[in-house]
Each structure stands twice: as structure tokens, then as C-alpha cells.
Automatic annotation (TrEMBL):
Keywords on record: Nucleotide-binding
Protein source organism: Myodes glareolus (Bank vole)
Annotated BTB domain residues: 191-351, 409-476
Matching InterPro entries: BTB/POZ_dom, P-loop_NTPase, SKP1/BTB/POZ_sf, Small_GTPase
Region (Disordered): 252-276
Protein name: BTB domain-containing protein
Length: 688
């Protein structure tokens, strides 16, 4: 018969419950929690004395419960506990030697259990039975079967399981910026088109959005570019009025002329500069204004088109604008809805004037919009999903074409090895960095040419393609390291996903990039040897192997602060594959750790920490100096999460030492009994 005395502070003043214990108990299992030091203290000061008072000859077994809390995530455990429960702190967890010291002082065996891990429960019951039988053997010494009972055995220490590797979570691809495009239509920053409706109502828009969404507008603006190559062929056609930046507030738009309209600027405060400003604007207007081109014979809905200088209603800066006059069939409400569809590819089912919108779509040959309106009118709006998908596919292809040819561009990026034409509206909607540059008070917002140092044309082309379409075409000549550095410069969190996929295509040797520092990394061909990677290295045999490719990918990922998603996943998979094939990756992981932490690659850093901690003994034996050179926080993390843990190693040493001592005692006892037996059988004839 066994009784368990559950201890705690709540029973400190009420020990009378022990009286119900039968005086003829066979064994008492005295338990305490390893997460409550007071419970162990009460074992010695209160409970053991009470047990011996009422059951003086009953054997006692000391058991430490909740062993799993030694390696558990205490934050998660505390969150799962009831709200008013006292939180468990790391300092409250008792090491095994504390319980063993108390057990040794009391002269009783000690065991540890965990119901969560199902560890030690059988040991407790088996050895409690042994203790009871040994105690009974002293009273019933004539029973021979009790002589073979062993004393309570040693308990092998519990080796906690390895922590599972962290899961690399891949976020969804960011939206294509439809809400930003709609906002750009309502707040026409960098607008280069002005529609004049009946009643002198005007609507600002952007050529690139209209031309890539509608073949009619594409032909219209392309016709304008062909007739005036200097106007729409590239970024150099704009005259941003750099001299008057910050001084011009507005230019009166009251008079709308179809032929060579003249604008009178309202100069800012400086009397001497105001006259120069006025003359400059007059010359620019005369140079950029053109004869109105009649469009009534080209297509319905259009009257004329001409170019002139206008003040942007958002930036208050003067710039060239294509003015398109529409006829009376183009009503304001349906036309605004049509423009919103061209910008976003979405159509509100609750639109009021669907019939007028359908007629306008028919005039402008926008058959996809016409079908969507018809589906809504026929209560079949669910069919519009496929039309919308096809619309976005055609738009993306047209955008890529405009990017490659520089059609309808309004800005030129001058790079180290050439120039690339781009489109401010698309950049503003797809990149916060670009939106701040072109939409803020920076000097680049008024310029049609922007110089970007330390960037090559191929990487910039890839980034622009990603910004325009949220896709990245594979290119074997594209250096992932340079692309990631450029993505970091432009603050593009999701670009690393596509760069990570480029890693499967193969890596080139590292070439120059804008990261101006020297980095010492372990060589793949010679473990323990450090090589120095700098921005101008062009050939390293250490990077031609698999480990070198993985190194480049990890370095690329850690260069850019939040770029950790698909690229991290790909890198972790490649490193895991290398480890399974027998390739040593410990040195590489040590090198990546603090780089990942420095650049906020949190998932990669967590994986590196997990690998180092779960292979701590082998890593420390090979790279002891590198381990000691890590930051104090990292070293503290290693000590707290290393596997096997320190307390297990100490317990294993103690277990092996005591086990050897017991084996020596058993061997000596066995020799003693065999010697006595030999003397017994050989002394009889001599006596006889």
C-alpha cells in the first residue's frame, strides 16, 4: 500500500490530514515540484518529520515532479496557466542535485518524473515496491524470496528531446497596388494627361495607366509620340522647371485654348527672380505648346489633343501635359468610373449609370468592360472574375513592353553602365521609396533625369520589372547579391522571395556591389580557414562549390533587413540538404548568425541559433574561439538552449560515477560471498 503526500504552502498550517494515514503503510512516496523551491524546503522541515512521527519504520521515496519544466518554454506555460496563478520563473526551476542533496541528507532514494513526457513513473513504482519489500525483509527474514530483492535502483537521467527546427513562414505575395492606383487617380501626382469634358470640367490622369489598360488610349498616345518624338519618347522630353522649384505656386488655368495657349505664372516673393521666372516659363510654354490635333475623324468621343504646360494640383509644379478634349457623349460620372476601371481593373456592381458606362465602353472599344457591365446587368457578375484576370494579364504584358521600349516614360535613371527609362506613376504605386522620392520635396521629384550611383543596368531592369508586375524573370546573368543589395536600397520586402528562387538556377562568382565592407567568412574548401570577401572580389574558388553558393544566398538574404521569406526558406532547405549529405555547415552557420541578427533576418537567425544549440558539442569543439567571440546575448542563449543541456551532462556524469561505484560494491560483495562459500566447503574435510 502506497500513499502520496501532496505538499504545498496551502497546507503549511494544517498537517492534521496526515493522521488518516494507516500506521501500517508499506511505503510513502513524498512528492514535490521542481518548479517550487518552497515545496522541497517543506519536505525537509515538515513533511518528512511528520511521516517519521506517524510511520517511523515505513520507507520513504522522494520524487521530484514536473521534470519537463526544465526545458519547457516557460512563457508559453505561464500563458496556459490560470490568470491568477503565480508565474513560473526560470530561477524557480530546481536542478537535479538539489533534490538529490535533500534525499541524501534524509537517507532516502530520489527519483524524478514527468507525466507530460511519461518519464520516471515506472521507476517510481518499481523502486517503491523494492523499498517496501526490503523493509519487510527485516521483519520476515525467513522468507527466501525476499533475499533476492534488489535495493532501489539508480535512475538514468532524462535526456530532453531536441527542439524542433523553427518553421520558415512564407507570407503571401503583396497586392498589385490597386488601392494605390485608385488613390493616385484621386490625387494625380505626376499626372501627364488632362481630359477636358463639357462644362470646362477637367480630370487629370496618367498615360502609362491608360495606355497599358486600353488599346484605344495606347494608339492615341502612341500616335502623339510618333508625331512629336521629342515629347513622349523618353524622360528627356519633360521640362520640370528646376529653376522655379519651390517658388511657383500656381499658373492660372482659367483660359483653355486649343492653339498655343499662353500661361502667366504667379511668381513667389523675390522681385528680382520673379521676372526671370516669368520669362523662363513663357519660353518653355512656347517651346512645348503645339497645334491642337483634331481627333473627331479618328474616333468617336474625342475632339482634339494638344500639349501645354500645366500646374500639377498636388505638387504645385509646372510640367508638360497632354490635353485631350472630349465631346458631349463623354459624361463625367461614367467617364470617371471608366478611368477607375483602367487603373484598378475593378468595377463596382452597385454602379448607378451602367447603361451610360456600357455605351462609353463601346465607343472606346473597351470590350472587356462592356462584357463586365453586361454580366452585372444580367445578374451574372460572378463571370467577371475571369475577365478581370485576363485584363490584368494583358496589362502586365503591355507594361513589360513599355518598360523594355521606354514607351510613355517620364523619368530616366542614369546608372553606372547606362540609362533606363521608367514611369513615375507606376513606381509611386509600387514602391514607398520611389513614392517618397517623386512625391515629396526632394529635388528628384521635379527632375526628369535621376542619377543612381553604384547600380548596374541589369539589376535595375530586374527591380523595375518586379515593381511593375510583381514578378521576376529568371536570368542566369543576374547576380543575386547585387539584386538583393538594390532591393534593400529600395526597401522592397518581398523581392527576396523571387531572388531566393533564382538560387536554384546557379550562382556566379561574387562581383562588385554597393556593400562597401570586407567580410571574413569560412572557406568551403578548407574548414577552419577564413577567406576575406570584399566588394571587388571577382574570383574565389571557395565560392564555386555548393557551400559557396549557399553562402552567397545567405549573405544576400542577410544584407537586406526584412528580406527573409522565400529566400530564407530556400537557403535553409539547401543547408539542411547539405548537412544530410555529410557536408559540414557549422562554420557557415556561425558566420551567418550575427549577420542575420544585424539585418533583422529573424527567421534565419532563429534557424541558425537552433542549429548551433542542437549541435552545440560538435560546434564548440571545432569552433570554440568563434563561439566565445559571439555577443553576450547569443552566448547566454547558447547556455540556456544548448542540447544536451548542462544539467543533463552533470546528471549523466553523476549517474555513470555512482553506477561504477555500485558495480564495484556488488563485485566486492559477490567475491566476499563466493570466498565464504569456498571456505565452507573446503573446511569440513579438515575438521573431519
Amino acid at each position: 500500500m502506497s500513499h502520496k503526500a501532496v505538499t504545498g504552502l496551502e497546507w503549511k498550517d494544517d498537517v492534521s490530514f496526515i493522521l488518516w494515514l494507516p500506521f501500517r503503510s508499506d511505503v510513502v512516496v513524498l512528492c514535490f515540484s521542481i518548479a517550487n523551491p518552497n515545496s522541497l524546503n517543506h519536505v525537509k522541515t515538515m513533511w518528512y518529520q511528520e511521516i517519521k512521527h506517524f510511520c517511523p519504520r515505513t520507507p520513504v521515496v522522494l520524487v521530484g515532479c514536473q521534470l519537463d519544466l526544465r526545458y519547457a518554454d516557460l512563457e508559453a506555460v505561464n500563458r496556459a496557466r490560470r490568470p491568477l496563478a503565480r508565474p513560473i520563473k526560470r530561477g524557480d526551476i530546481l536542478p537535479p542535485e538539489k533534490g538529490r542533496e535533500v534525499a541524501k541528507e534524509l537517507g532516502i532514494p530520489y527519483y524524478e518524473t514527468s507525466v507530460f513526457d511519461q518519464f520516471g513513473i515506472k521507476d517510481v513504482f518499481d523502486n517503491a515496491i523494492r523499498a517496501a519489500l526490503i523493509s519487510r525483509r527485516h521483519l520476515q527474514f525467513w522468507k527466501s524470496h525476499l533475499k533476492k530483492v534488489q535495493k532501489p535502483l539508480l535512475q538514468a537521467p532524462f535526456l530532453p528531446p531536441k527542439a524542433p527546427p523553427p518553421v520558415i513562414k512564407v507570407p503571401e505575395c503583396p497586392s498589385t497596388g490597386t488601392s494605390d492606383a485608385a488613390c493616385l487617380l484621386d490625387n494625380p501626382l505626376c499626372a501627364d494627361v488632362l481630359f477636358l469634358l463639357q462644362g470646362q470640367e477637367h480630370i487629370f490622369a496618367h498615360r502609362i495607366y491608360l495606355a497599358t489598360s486600353s488599346s484605344k488610349f495606347y494608339d492615341l498616345f502612341l500616335m502623339e509620340c510618333e508625331e512629336s518624338p521629342g515629347w513622349g519618347g523618353g524622360a528627356g522630353e519633360e521640362v520640370p522647371c528646376r529653376d522655379c522649384q519651390g517658388r511657383v505656386q500656381s499658373i492660372s488655368p482659367a483660359e483653355e485654348g486649343e492653339k498655343s495657349p499662353q500661361r502667366t505664372p504667379q511668381a513667389g516673393p523675390g522681385p528680382s527672380s520673379g521676372q526671370d521666372l516669368l520669362e523662363s516659363l513663357t519660353l518653355q510654354t512656347e517651346a512645348l505648346s503645339s497645334e491642337a490635333q483634331a481627333l473627331s475623324g479618328w474616333s468617336k468621343g474625342f475632339v482634339s489633343m494638344h500639349r501645354e504646360m500645366r500646374v500639377n494640383p498636388i505638387s504645385k509644379r509646372v510640367g508638360p501635359v497632354t490635353v485631350v478634349r472630349l465631346d458631349a457623349s463623354m459624361q463625367s460620372g461614367p467617364f470617371r468610373t471608366l478611368l477607375r476601371f483602367l487603373y484598378t481593373g475593378q468595377l463596382d456592381e452597385k454602379e448607378k449609370d451602367l447603361l451610360g458606362l456600357a455605351q462609353m465602353a463601346e465607343i472606346l472599344e473597351m470590350f472587356d468592360l462592356r462584357m463586365m457591365v453586361e454580366n452585372i446587368m444580367n445578374k451574372e457578375a460572378f463571370m467577371n472574375q475571369e475577365i478581370t484576370k485576363a485584363f490584368h494579364v494583358r496589362k502586365a504584358n503591355r507594361i513589360k513592353e513599355c518598360l523594355s521600349k521606354g514607351t510613355f516614360s517620364d523619368v530616366t535613371f542614369t546608372l553606372d553602365d547606362g540609362a533606363i527609362r521608367a514611369h513615375k506613376p507606376l513606381l509611386i504605386c509600387s514602391c514607398e521609396w520611389m513614392a517618397a522620392m517623386f512625391g515629396g520635396s526632394f529635388v528628384e521629384s521635379a527632375n526628369s533625369e535621376v542619377h543612381l550611383p553604384s547600380i548596374n543596368k541589369m539589376s535595375m531592369q530586374a527591380v523595375l520589372e518586379y515593381l511593375y508586375t510583381k514578378q521576376l524573370s529568371p536570368n542566369l546573368d543576374l547576380d543575386p547579391l547585387e539584386l538583393i543589395a538594390l532591393a534593400n536600397r529600395f526597401c522592397l520586402p518581398h523581392l527576396v522571395a523571387l531572388v531566393g528562387n533564382l538560387g536554384e538556377l546557379g550562382f556566379q562568382t561574387p562581383v562588385g556591389n554597393e556593400i562597401r565592407f570586407n567580410l571574413k567568412l569560412p572557406a568551403a574548401s578548407a574548414p577552419g580557414k577564413m577567406v576575406e570577401l570584399s566588394f571587388d572580389d571577382t574570383s574565389r574558388e571557395d565560392f564555386s562549390s555548393y557551400a559557396g553558393r549557399a553562402l552567397l544566398l545567405i549573405l544576400a538574404l542577410t544584407v537586406c533587413p526584412p528580406f527573409i521569406y522565400y529566400g530564407e526558406q530556400h537557403a535553409v532547405q539547401e543547408l539542411t540538404k547539405a548537412a544530410m549529405s555529410g557536408v559540414g555547415i557549422d562554420g557557415e552557420v556561425l558566420s551567418y548568425l550575427e549577420l542575420a541578427q544585424f539585418h533583422n533576418a529573424n527567421q534565419l537567425a532563429a534557424w541558425c541559433l537552433h542549429h548551433i544549440c542542437t549541435n552545440y558539442n560538435s560546434v564548440c569543439s571545432k569552433f570554440r574561439k568563434e563561439i566565445k567571440s559571439k555577443s553576450a546575448d547569443n552566448q547566454a542563449y547558447f547556455e540556456r538552449h544548448r542540447w544536451p543541456p548542462v544539467w543533463y551532462l552533470k546528471e549523466e556524469d553523476h549517474y555513470q560515477r555512482v553506477k561504477r561505484e555500485r558495480e564495484k560494491e556488488d563485485l566486492a560483495l559477490k567475491k566476499h560471498y563466493s570466498r565464504r562459500k569456498w571456505f565452507f566447503w573446503h573446511s569440513s574435510p579438515a575438521v573431519a
